[in-house]
Amino acid sequence: MEQNSYRFFENKDCKYYPCHQGLEQLNCLFCYCPMYRLEKCPGNPSYFEKNGKRIKVCTNCTFPHQAENYDKIMDILRQAN
After folding, report:
1. pLDDT of residue 4
2. Structural domains of the chain, count
3. Which domain, by its residues, includes 34?
4. DSSP assignment string, the chain
5. How many whole angstroms separate alpha carbon 32 and alpha carbon 58?
């Protein structure tokens, strides 16, 4: 894996690192998931209702943090626009 490139960035100095467990390498490039606004994403979000609104919860999703998913994410973002 190419460290700290345009496709991968790991910030071990972040106070939340590691934000997800179980990954050998954690890509922080998409710390805030760019697919959050999408109803259908390749991750595994859960949902809950609050005040009549459906809220997407991505706490247990590691899809954007896996380095091998960079190209998939970029394709999804291109198609979403």
Report:
1. 61
2. 1
3. 1-81
4. --TTSSS----TTSTT-SSSSS-SS---TTSS-TTTT-SS-SS--EEEEETTEEEEE-TT--GGGSGGGHHHHHHHHHHH-
5. 10
